[in-house]
Structure prediction request, 433 residues.
Amino acid sequence: MNRDCIEYHNYVSILKEELIPAMGCTEPIAVAYGAAVARETLGALPEKAEIYASGNIIKNVKSVVVPNTGGLRGIAAAAAAGIIAGKADKQLQVISEVTEEQKKEIAAFVKETPILISTTDSDLVFDLIVELIGNGQSARVRIANYHTNIVLIEKDGNVLHSARVEQDTDNDLTDRTFMKAESILDFAETVDLSDVQFLLDLQIKYNMAIAEEGLRRDYGANIGNVLLKSYEDLASLHDENSILLKCRAYAAAGSDARMSGCELPVIINSGSGNQGITASVPVIVYAKEAGISEERMYRALVLSNLLAVYQKTPIGRLSAYCGVINAGTAAACGIAYLKGGDFKVIAHTLVNSLAISSGVICDGAKASCAAKIALALDNAFLGYRMYENGQQFYGGDGIVKKGVDKMVSGVGRLGREGMRGTDKEILRIMLAD
Prediction:
């Protein structure tokens, strides 16, 4: 791909927009971010907070530990962290610098201050309003469509900032409708690495660090360590199976830590830390274990990251469709590329993988996300091995479409439209006694 063409620059822009650092699960961090902006706008510690959130935000905040809160969970904890200790200019790292004294203040604020939480009546999948009241004044902040997209700031009813809100549209981000699987591979093979290496170096540093932390300590259900026990039995073989199992273990361990409140940042993908971990860590582990060159690893990461974004774009930021399925599929394609695979190999890997595991539900952020990452990668690796062995699923087999781009479009429709009712039912189940 020519460096001067518009597609080239758009792909670079997409990577810059998507590969950003975040501490903790991105939905509670978005709540903390909104609360921090509202606190700055109010200019005082509030006496009352009201949070209005769309169902998908509630689903993804309910069970996950909010970092730097001493183990607290939920929307109230996230809002309190942003109010007490948030630094709004750090966006998705808004609560990355919290003192021990502030952790005590956060716990006291949650206990002593009314924090009312309601579901919005908005049709947007991602919609969050934080309203703070204190000293006879009020501040109101709205974030819509994606985690840092502030569309309204008000103080005492006076509008300080406003932006147009469209239905589930990332207005301020680079248009993604031009993306196709073959052009993504073309870009990955030809990109001047100086244009993207700083992003990838940070992704390698952050995401491998949290994966290693997840294996060192007791986090969540310890899926990574459960898998590594199997790896220890295979390690002496030094074969493909042992390397792929280690890829799954490290990716799962990163999620183990992240879902349990680990205070290390990650580089996200498609608004999700778990998807960022899944799209990158297996590619990094495989390249290092197999002795593949650093340059080819970088190019495989470009491919994996962009394929993850490409698959997730038609689904939307939040859905009942588990996003790590897309990221796991992208990682398997990245590994296929590391092994010398061309477009035909990568396309078949992607289609086979989506045929196997599309439909895994997202029931919020919590410990079992790590197991879903392990599942996604296992199925994606099977999709690749099918092609290695001359096997494939054909167009017309269920939702399988002939052609990789048609397959991505069809799965996008499944995740966005087909699972809307599923999404609502999942939330009702989660909130029932």
